[in-house]
Amino acid sequence: MTEGAPAIFMAMEASAIGAAIRQSRWLYMSANIGHIVALMFFAGAIAVMDVRLAGGLAATAPRPLLRRARRFAIAGFLGLVLTGGILFTAEASHVVLNRVFQIKAALIALGLLNVVWVEAIIMPRIAALPPLSPMPAGARQGALASIAIWFAVAICGRAIAYF
Amino acid sequence: MTRLLPALTCAGLLIAVTTVAAVAHHGWGSYDAANPVTVNGPVENSKFENPHATIVIKGADKAWTVTLAPTSRMTARGASADIVAVGKTVSAFGYPSTVEKDEMRAERITVDGKTYELR
């Protein structure tokens, strides 16, 4: 327990759930492995979406491709939140004060803002486009921002343990 | 927009990798492998918990907090919770932390004549 952390995170770590995660032989390990597996799903799906938004895979109509990839991205993201929540709860007071974790959390917020922007502004302009159409303004920028941000999130995630 | 977000991201990363390792405990990087120590004594406190089990050993001169392995690895190597329980006499060979005072990471421990490799 790290003294000086906000009370809610101290309580989270001290909770029965927190203790159960720390003391279980398999739960923490499973969450760790599950976090990587969910990341694979998420990163793969995001890569497909971002490549399409950036103008790649142009022979495929954007809408069905993006729709299918989005489902995997959402499933991967939910998996990341669930497994990440387990890992976080076990050491909440310690991790919340970790600088790299704070940067990661901010980057996730930035990534989600980018998702909102792309989904609200860019996607409607893409919806009806046939294959081989040029992408509308902003699509490429949104895709590049997405790739850069999620790479940085993954790097921070792994780096938390070393700071 | 094209350049701004990647630039912000890079700035964030730069902060991340240059942050002083104030609370580092993971891996072996923040331990002084050039000056290994052996601490022998009774276990005063034992936390058989993830991400790493930790025990406090009352050594000859002071009490050492000894960081062990993840509990699943401990169990796999035969060093279950009762092996490092309070009251057991444990000899820990490992490396002192370069960050936290009186903390070390154990390469191996010996309990009741049996040695358990923890790396």
Proportion of beta-strand residues of chain B: 35-45%
Low-confidence stretches of chain B: 20-24
Please tally the helical runs of chain B, counting DSSP H or I stretches of 4 or more residues: 2
How many angstroms does the end-to-end distance of chain B come to?
46 Å
In terms of structural class, how would the helical and strand content of chain A be classed?
A: mainly alpha
Summary of the model, kept short:
The complex is a heterodimer of chains A (163) and B (119). With 163 residues, chain A is mainly α. Chain A has helices at 7-14, 16-23, 27-53, 62-90, 92-96, 99-126, 139-159.
Give a description of the structure.
The complex is a heterodimer of chains A (163) and B (119). Chain A is an all-alpha fold. Chain A has one domain (7-162). Chain A has helices at 7-14, 16-23, 27-53, 62-90, 92-96, 99-126, 139-159. In chain A, α2 (16-23) packs across α4 (62-90) and α3 runs antiparallel to α4 (62-90). Helix content of chain B is 18%, strand content 35%. Chain B is elongated, with a radius of gyration of 18 Å. With 119 residues, chain B is α+β, with helices and mostly antiparallel strands. Chain B has helices at 4-18, 71-76; strands spanning 37-47, 54-58, 63-67, 89-96, 103-111, 114-117. Mean pLDDT of chain B is 87; it is low at 20-24. The relative contact order of chain B is 0.20.
